């Protein structure tokens, strides 16, 4: 009997990762803990009956079966989770790791004299779930290639899964053909990330929904609006004084969803005509903003031409104050001059892209999405629901 019991325990030890994964897929923490309590008891009986042929110190290791615990109300990831940061936004990566109670993985990233990217992992990731945090913000091409080389390094180091965490996805605006002989850069970049060896992508506020379909691997889409909504709620603007504005027709769906979460506020739309890339001309306003606080919502602010022209129109139409909200602060020149010119009561953005100290101005408010990304990473790692974060 002791021999059979020991054989069962040995089997569990050898296949603990598979068994732990099977139990976690049930999404029932209590069931999983009960199972592993039984497994440890079986192993303890085996040790007693076999004169301790297996080391009893194994029983004192809480991660012997890869179990994930809850400690002081927080999820504590097991040793198979690794987070590595690229060079484009290390502060955000550090905040994400701190929230999860982890240390960032050791990685060496450098440039050769001719600009080529060199990446070497300085710790083992064999059999691990690896998350690579790297927004492809300016310089876009540099940071994109760095992400691709990081993915390749993890694949060649035998990582079990590789998730590219991309808070800002460059080339997202090149998502369709509006004229003949145009490229669709978003699809090309999606193919490159997949070919490099990524198992999954975790992206934040993609420019358009169709970009999700460009990937042939799973994509989890995180929205930055919860942190912006919380900030606006703290301002206690009366609901009957509020109107949500889309700066162009393409952003109506985003603005409508934002308005519903702001006590179902009314919606206004700015109609514009674009004459070229980064050049826009505002034509007219659909909706009433007179005497109201206008909150403009967009996924990104690049040169700020669209949103500043829209703000000028809103003031002409009688808006009492104008707030600009976006997830990605690209801030290409002359964005800072336009945003700090007095048109906005406040410019609210997040830290998916690092904002240089020289680009700060009095009206700018930068919110962190670190906690949001960390929760999403934990749910991906534990086979949980990411979309439930935004219900």
Automatic annotation (TrEMBL):
One of its GO terms (cellular component) is cytoplasm. Residues 81-197 form the Ribose-phosphate pyrophosphokinase N-terminal domain. It catalyses: D-ribose 5-phosphate + ATP = 5-phospho-alpha-D-ribose 1-diphosphate + AMP + H(+). GO terms for biological process: 5-phosphoribose 1-diphosphate biosynthetic process; purine nucleotide biosynthetic process; ribonucleoside monophosphate biosynthetic process. Keywords: ATP-binding, Kinase, Magnesium, Metal-binding, Nucleotide biosynthesis, Nucleotide-binding, Transferase. InterPro entries: PRib_PP_synth_CS, Pribosyltran_N, PRTase-like, PRTase_dom, Rib-P_diPkinase, Rib-P_diPkinase_bac. It holds the Pfam family Pribosyl_synth. Its EC number is 2.7.6.1. SMART domains: Pribosyltran_N (SM01400). PROSITE patterns: PRPP_SYNTHASE. One of its GO terms (molecular function) is kinase activity. Belongs to the ribose-phosphate pyrophosphokinase family. This is ribose-phosphate diphosphokinase. It comes from Thalictrum thalictroides (Rue-anemone).
